[in-house]
Design goal:
Rossmann fold
Length: 227
């Protein structure tokens, strides 16, 4: 089992998109995956229950920190992977989700504010690990990167200069990522498809995700669970 928490107090950096993409990809691989929406806005839960129509994803929603603290270990044992989407601001639920994670992912888009917030989040997660006397792995994921631009190169350079643990994989500003929120379907070809595959492969390489059970699943069965 694995609990992946996606967090940043900076709104608009792509947390919900990332949670949705990972959940849908794992479901398509035959992995028993659940999506926990800990954001009061409930965007990920609406996507999973109203828009998404692919292979099985169990969708839960809980933004209350006390109830989330009780629910996370239970769901972590029930599913092979639990992906937690958090709010775009600091709250107790995000802290609980990070403290209970096997991996914390911090999306960062090109911009000084995102870099600063990514540094704060990594520092905060490391502090949580020390306070709970365990290591909480945390990785920064560069998102909406325009590879040929000076700005994107500068952001990646700044992340490295600050010594932030960064995934090799970066996600581009491909239109396909925005379309996922409306279509509920992963792209079948193109840059976004290659990037998603690379991201999942890197997370599997790190031991944070289980191997695929099947490839090319096309079931449209879905499961909705309200906590």
């Amino acid at each position: 089992m694995a609990v992946l928490t996606i967090t940043s107090r900076k709104g608009g950096c792509g947390k919900t998109m990332l949670a949705s993409v990972l959940a849908a990809t794992l479901a398509g691989d035959g992995v028993e995956v659940a999506l926990m929406d800990a954001d009061p806005n409930g965007t990920a839960h609406r996507w999973a229950t109203e828009t998404y129509g692919g292979p099985l994803i169990a969708s839960h929603v809980e933004a209350d920190a006390e109830r989330l603290a009780d629910l996370l270990p239970t769901l972590g044992e029930r599913y092979s992977v639990l992906i937690v989407d958090t709010a775009g601001f600091g709250n107790q639920a995000a802290t609980v989700a990070a403290a209970g994670a096997d991996l914390v992912l911090v999306p960062v888009t090109p911009g000084e504010g995102d870099v600063v917030e990514a540094q704060r989040t990594v520092t905060y997660v490391n502090g949580l690990g020390r306070s709970t006397r365990r290591t909480i792995p945390v990785r920064v994921l560069a998102n909406r990167v325009r590879r040929a631009t000076t700005l994107s190169r500068h952001v990646l350079s700044e992340l490295d200069k600050l010594g932030l643990p960064r995934l090799r994989t970066a996600l581009s500003e491909a239109v396909a990522y925005g379309e996922i929120s409306f279509s509920g379907a992963l792209p079948r070809e193109g840059t976004a498809t290659d990037e998603i595959a690379a991201l999942v492969a890197e997370l599997r390489e790190g031991g944070w995700l289980p191997a695929a059970i099947r490839q090319g699943a096309n079931s449209d069965t879905r499961k909705v669970v309200k906590a």
